[in-house]
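[job 0417] fold request received: Class I SAM-dependent methyltransferase
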Amino acid sequence: MADAASRLTALAEELLSEPLPVRIRAWDGSESGPPDAPALVIRHRRALRRILWKPGELGLARAWVAGEIDVDGDLYEVLGRIAGLLWDRGADAKDAVHPVRDPKVRAFARGLLDLARPWPPPAPPAEEVRRRTGPLHTRRRDKEAISHHYDVGNDFYALVLGPSMVYSCAYWQDGSTLEDAQRDKLDLVCRKLGLKEGDRLLDVGCGWGSMAVHAARHYGAQVTGITLSREQAAHARKRIAEEGLTDRIEIRVQDYRDVHDGPYDAISSIGMAEHVGSVGYREYADDLYALLKPGGRLLNHQIARRPEKDEDAYRIDAFIDAYVFPDGELAPVGRTLATLEEAGFEARDVEALREHYALTLRQWVANLERHWERAVRATSPGRARVWRLYMAASALSFEHNKIGVNQILAVRPLDGGGSRLPLRTRAWTETAEDAQGAA
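[job 0417] inference complete; emitting structure tokens
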């Protein structure tokens, strides 16, 4: 009988009708595949049982999180080679390799079953979200989803994100460090919002308080930050107290739907709208519109996906839904713009930052790998593996234009239609110091 690696390689190549671009190293010590390629390591046959029980992405994800699948070599190269099998086949490739009646798929499954015994599969890893059934995006379900993602330990996030504690796309230029780029992103948001001394800013999804601190310290804003994560709120409040900004910043554990103390001069929503979901996005837009005073500005910073040929066929990514952002959804930027304008906003500027997010994610992965043992102690081996895979795969998706991220600047028009924006809309490309020098 052939060794496990050779059998797995033969099964995969028969299914795909092309050579595997990576080596396979199996639990029995056998190897097969291109000698100069990085290796996909299958440490235990349990991984095959997971794939058989949940074909496709979720089964593979469970095996990865459990440590039953690993890589030997550059993680980005392995992911890129495997993803290329799907990307080269087009948008429908994921569905094309799974039809139950396809004889190649059935032969592949029989081969895996022979290698994977005994049956049944193990339980999902503890890091997989356990969700109740019922309607999406109720307040309670949203709070549980946010807690799953963010309440995994501030110490863990500090290792990954670095001192800035900013968990969104940075704004890069040549020679920037991660801290430089995150500071520049926060400053860009403040300039787009036109913040000035005494302005009331609502920061929706305030995270660990970095935007609030920057707006209060450098622009004199009075900031209300809201989050559903108690760990984020505790960290933000401690930081604000240490920096002597308690008179300028209030942090609340609060759903955006429960904020009723407008009007605000400006609203920032940075990396939060992905949690809202398609069923709630119009309500989100309506609520933010109602909280702004006429002439007030909204800066919506949001990840976007490419449009589907059939938008009704869109499904949330199985791995991300189960392990990273439960119930999170991505929308094409055009749909987001349309919904904001349907709520009454006037969209004034869109800036695409896709390449910037790829650079940011690679820095976060490097931080995680550099502090791996400490990160594992701060959370769990499975959770650290989730974040490593999620961030590395996301970096590749941004680089290959599978997803993007955009800053949308929108305004609530005055009753007569005015916007209070400068005629040269991109005046924020100048720093505050540049503008003062020009004056």
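[job 0417] notes: Confidence is low (pLDDT under 50) at residues 91-98, 432-439. Residues 46 and 349 are 51 Å apart (CA to CA).
[job 0417] exit 0
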